[in-house]
Structure formats: C-alpha cells, structure tokens
Automatic annotation (TrEMBL):
Keywords: Metal-binding, Zinc
Gene: LOC109058313
InterPro entries: MOB_kinase_act_fam (IPR005301), MOB_kinase_act_sf (IPR036703)
Disulfide bond among keywords: no
Cited SMART domains: Mob1_phocein
Positions that bind Zn(2+): 82, 87, 164, 169
Organism: Cyprinus carpio
Name of the molecule in the record: MOB kinase activator 3B
Domain of life: Eukaryota
Length: 248
C-alpha cells in the first residue's frame, strides 16, 4: 500500500468514528462476504448484486454503513482544505447547489457553507445508523417498513460528498496519489445504488456524463479524472449562474 493510501486509511484522518458490525451477527457475515468479493477482484457489477437467499434489507444496511465509513474517510482527507472561505456554498460546480433541510433547526432548504453542510450531513447519517429502531442490531428485531426509503435519502446525501470532493477538492486527492482508491469507491457506490434503484437519475447528473448529441446516460465518468474534470469545466461553463439546480 502506498504512503498516500495509508493516509487515506489513517484513523486520524477519519471525519467521524467508524460504525462497526458486531462479530457473530448476520450483518457481520454479510459485511465480510462483501469485502471478500471486493478483495478478490470480482467485477464490481457482480459484487453489488443481492446474494441468492439473502434479505434485501440486511444487504442494503451492510452497504449503507460501509459507504458511510468509506466516504467519511475520503472527506476526512480533504476536510482541512474545505473551509467556509474556500467553499462558502455546498455545491458541485457552478450549476449544482445543495441546501440543507432537517426536522429541527433548518425546516426550509437553507444554503450553507460546505463544511457546515458536511457536519450536519454526517451527524444526521450517524444518528440514523445508530438508531436501533432504524438499523436494528439485535437478532429478531425487524427493520422498519420505511427502511429502504431512509437508506435512499442517506445514499442521496452521501453522493453529494462525492460530488463536492470530485469537483472542488480532487486536486488534493491527486496530490496524495489516492485517485484510484476514490474512483473505485465511487464506482462501487454507483453500481450498488443503481443496481438496486436506490438513487434517482437526476441526483447522479453532476458526475454522470451525458452525450450532448444523443442525451443518453453512459458509464460513470471516472477515468482518467483529469480529462473528466476538464470535460466538466467545459460543460459547466456553458451554464449561467441563474440556472443553478438547488437540491435539499
């Protein structure tokens, strides 16, 4: 493992404490199975498919927690460069602005600096995955009926971390030499979310390339990112600021 990737996995760089699965539980076994598939070099499209005979909710729960941990690590590597001065608005380029809304302080979609938005986002997700009524850890306790809907919202918000990191802080990832790790994590996330229809196409727009002549969706725009970022700069520069797509 390179020095850069050691930095990516360095616990001191973690934005939030990792959520772990209890050994001996079904979810712990599913987590090990999913990790083994990734480590074996199995195609990511195949790795995200629901294993035969396994419960969908368990499979989704394992991946949501895993993605939270991994994206938490990725943002942790750039958070010192994501400040209210450098990122006064939580955005993904000039066209996409993300506004925060919750059931407490921000009851209406509110524009916030990126680091404040990220703090609220991670706090909110942490509350969801630590809530036994939503992510039960005891055997025999069922998932709530709206579990998949809650996970869709979690994944939607986690995707926005990718958007912000890729478009505004990818230079730091490149300097660390962690480009391949971040790209693989994003590709894994993309294939999982789209395989199980857990994220809407409109949410994927900032990081999914469309062909202007045919308006067709293509593969995640990943490699090489240097060319992709240049593509986005050209594409985004064609939009005026009064056409911002704001999402809460």
């Amino acid at each position: 493992m390179s020095i850069a990737l050691k930095q990516v996995f360095n616990k001191d760089k973690t934005f939030r404490p990792k959520r772990r699965f209890e050994p001996g539980t079904q979810r712990f076994e599913l987590h090990k199975r999913a990790q083994a598939s990734l480590s074996s070099g199995l195609d990511l499209r195949a790795a995200v498919k629901l294993p035969q005979g396994e419960d969908l909710n368990d499979w989704v729960a394992v991946h949501v927690v895993d993605f939270f941990n991994r994206i938490n690590l990725i943002y942790g590597t750039v958070c010192e460069f994501c400040t209210e001065k450098s990122c006064p608005v939580m955005s993904g380029g000039p066209r996409y602005e993300y506004r925060w809304q919750d059931e407490h302080k921000y009851k209406k979609p509110t524009p916030l600096p990126a680091p404040q938005y990220m703090n609220l986002l991670m706090d909110w997700i942490e509350m969801q995955i630590n809530n036994e009524d939503i992510f039960p850890t005891s055997i025999g306790i069922p998932f709530p009926k709206n579990f998949i809907q809650i996970c869709k919202k979690i994944l939607c918000r986690l995707f926005r971390v990718f958007v912000h990191v890729y478009i505004h802080h990818f230079d730091r990832i490149l300097l660390m030499g962690a480009e391949a790790h971040v790209n693989t994590c994003y590709k894994h996330f993309y294939f999982f979310a789209t395989e199980l229809n857990l994220i809407e196409r409109k949410e994927l727009e900032p990081l999914v390339r469309t062909e202007p002549d045919f308006h067709m969706w293509t593969e995640p725009c990943l490699l090489p990112w240097r060319k992709a970022s240049f593509y986005f700069l050209l594409k985004l520069s064609s939009f005026k600021m009064n056409r911002i797509c704001s999402r809460e």
